[in-house]
From TrEMBL, chain A:
PROSITE patterns: ABC_TRANSPORTER_2 (PS50893). It holds the Pfam family ABC_tran. The keyword Nucleotide-binding applies. InterPro entries: AAA+_ATPase (IPR003593), ABC_transporter-like_ATP-bd (IPR003439), P-loop_NTPase (IPR027417). It comes from Paranoxybacillus vitaminiphilus. Residues 2-225 form the ABC transporter domain. One of its GO terms (molecular function) is ATP binding. This is ABC-2 type transport system ATP-binding protein.
TrEMBL record, chain B:
InterPro entries: Tscrpt_reg_HTH_GntR, WH-like_DNA-bd_sf, WH_DNA-bd_sf. This is GntR family transcriptional regulator. Residues 9-77 form the HTH gntR-type domain. Keywords: DNA-binding, Transcription, Transcription regulation. Gene3D superfamilies: Winged helix-like DNA-binding domain superfamily/Winged helix DNA-binding domain. PANTHER family: GNTR-FAMILY TRANSCRIPTIONAL REGULATOR, HTH-TYPE TRANSCRIPTIONAL REPRESSOR YTRA. It comes from Paranoxybacillus vitaminiphilus. SUPFAM superfamilies: Winged helix' DNA-binding domain.
């Protein structure tokens, strides 16, 4: 369970999140959607304990988030950060040394599923290869919360499909919750239980994807467009 | 390949419809085992929670049954499958008639056009 209680986050004078209160249930795949600069990455970083609220509280399982939250929360960054000399398996060992919930065998299974060779250097992999390797490192942790910042962005359709399928194959929704940001909404929609739409640092709307289709006959993409068009008219 | 879905209908219902068609076509026979929730989720590129909902709904309708520790199976009750077949047929016919009526055709027009069409099809085969 993840709770935001009146959370505001400012970077200097810039407001990234503005008095957000929301709680996220366990065992779901939740999409955090919105335009660039709407506060999506900040939302994830607050859960990951990488940044802290200017005002308000973020709680995970009832505990206020500190840096120690990394034992419960796996975070997949939008950035590619790695040592130049590292092979995939070196990175895997590094993760294993940092996180007690890291399952090395599972990591190798995921790499195999995604067709990544463990003895390749990370810098020799294509962008798509690194995107998949990063997913493997994240999914190999048995952390109750997996956060993924733009796991599909800038990757070709085949790689995106392989990531989506890898995710479905290896996540354990009886024990884990995934919160991901993405612009590839069309592709990710069948994966989502819920979508949270952010606009200007506020939660514009929150929907259960099946209900949205059932009651409004609307897809998540259309809904997002409507939310943003509504703003233009103002 | 990950499947495409109609954006105006819940995904769990669309998957239900696909499974129903497979059963009615006898592609999945009475007593056959369905893919596991996880397998089905990976095949379709859909959230496992959604597939679980599809299976629960099919079970509620008596079309499949879950056996503890063994998986989910197409019902062996052929009457249920026959009813499902009739239901799908009625749905499609009702849809067709509604579309035709909206265009202003009467029931007699519709029946005549079906006979025509059917003769045409036979003609093509010969």
């Amino acid at each position: 369970m993840i709770e935001f209680e009146h959370v505001t986050k400012k970077y200097g004078n810039v407001i990234a999140l503005d008095d957000v209160s929301i709680s996220l249930e366990k065992g779901k795949i939740i999409g955090v959607l919105g335009a660039n600069g709407s506060g999506k990455s900040t939302f994830l970083k607050l859960i990951a304990g990488l940044v802290f609220p200017t005002k308000g509280k973020v709680l995970v399982d009832g505990m206020e988030v500190t840096r120690n939250i990394s034992s419960k929360v796996a975070y997949l960054s939008e950035l590619d950060v790695y040592y130049d000399s590292f092979m995939v398996q070196d990175m895997l060992e590094f993760y294993a040394s940092q996180f007690s919930d890291f399952r090395t065998e599972k990591a190798y299974d995921i790499l195999e599923f995604m067709e990544i060779q463990p003895d390749k250097k990370l810098r020799q992999l294509s962008k798509g290869g690194r995107g998949r390797a990063k997913i493997a490192f994240t999914l190999a942790r048995e952390a109750p919360i997996l956060l993924m910042d733009e796991p599909l962005s800038g990757l070709d359709p085949m790689v995106r499909e392989s990531i989506v399928k890898g995710l479905i194959s290896f996540v354990d929704l009886e024990r884990q919750t995934i919160v991901m940001t993405t612009h590839e909404i069309d592709e990710v929609e069948p994966l989502l239980d819920e979508a949270i739409f952010l606009r200007d640092g506020k939660v514009a709307e929150r929907v259960r994807v099946d209900e949205l289709r059932e009651t409004s006959r609307d897809s998540v993409v259309n809904r997002l467009k409507k939310i943003y068009k509504g703003e233009e008219r103002r | 390949m990950v499947e495409e879905f109609d954006t105006t209908k819940p995904i769990y219902i669309q998957i239900m419809e696909k499974i129903n068609k497979k059963i009615v076509r006898n592609e999945w026979k009475a007593g056959d085992k369905l893919p596991s929730v996880r397998e089905m989720a990976v095949q379709t590129g859909v959230n496992p929670n959604t597939i679980q909902r599809t299976y629960s709904e099919l079970e509620r309708m008596g079309i499949v049954e879950t056996r503890r520790g063994q998986g989910t199976f197409v019902t062996e009750n052929v009457e249920v499958i026959e009813r499902l077949r009739e239901q799908l047929k009625r749905d499609i016919v009702a849809d067709f008639i509604r579309n035709m009526t909206e265009l202003g055709f009467t029931m007699n027009d519709i029946i005549a056009s079906l006979k025509d069409f059917s003769r045409g099809e036979d003609g093509e085969k010969q």
